Amino acid sequence: MNHQIQNSSLSVSIATKGAELQSIINKSTGLEYMWSADPAFWAKKSPVLFPIVGGLKNDHYTYNGNTYTLGRHGFARDMEFTVTEQDESRITFTLTDNETTRKNYPFQFNFSVKYTLEQNRVNVSYIVKNTDDKTLLFSVGGHPAFKLPLVHNTFFEDYYLQFSHVETAGHWPLSPGGQLEDHSVPFINNTNILPLKRPLFYQDALVFKNLASNSIAILSKKTPNGLRVHFDGFPYLGIWNAKDANFVCIEPWCGIADSVNATGDLAQKEGINQLQPGHIFERTWGVELF
After folding, report:
1. CATH number for the domain including 80?
2. Full-model pTM
3. Quick check: is 130 in a domain?
4. Structural domains of the chain, count
5. Apex CA 70: angle with CA 102 and CA 42, to 5°?
6. 221-260 exposure pattern, b = at least 16 Cβ within 10 A, e = fewer
7. d(CA 115, CA 12)
8. Is there a smaller number of Cβ atoms within 10 Å at the N or the C end of the chain?
């Protein structure tokens, strides 16, 4: 089931399954910013990644001497959330641990995804509450796919990414099994511009750690329309496109895939967050549409 929120600038649709963003429409232009979820390429639009981001080594982890299985990006994206708050311009979806989640994730939690509209911006907040009597171990992140080209008479390679800061940064390659290699590869050299070319993504996602930037824009010299993703407080970032599909994902992460050298111990996993009983973790990314 889809739920709508809106304000004077935007109309937004979100599904209860996975609390997944489905549509962002600019009311003044009628422009849709979200990918169509064409199953020939990739049948999702903006999955929510919880309680892990990326893939585990051999899809397994250990906790307190026991071994558990979790698929890539965790289970939240495939579960039904409950609407726990809604008014015209904001809505909150909540997932609570249950018998199914505890089989392979032995923690008690409340996980909420809150969507809030502010003028021409959609803010997406991840709110994790530890309802257990032990430390909660988790990662969380976003995976929104933005339609590209955005407007008629433009092409994918007419667009470019503009980082908020000049960057010199490597990206971390992914192994065939979806784990991070143990070294980065030089990639961005003293620039804030990355021209979009389809072959950039033929070897999977571009994964970055601790960029100087806190936002990335998708722009083109052939149209004034574009968007800017703000990701303060997210130490990892993925940029991805399914081969030759008409979208780009800008993915803010508080967590990251296992490395090829990962021990499998969840408490030692890179990017894992440790939340004490009764405490609340909250991070917000936003997308500004124009």
Report:
1. 2.70.98.10
2. 0.96
3. yes
4. 1
5. 125
6. eebebbbbbbbeebebbbbbbbeebbbbbbbbbbbbbbbe
7. 9
8. N
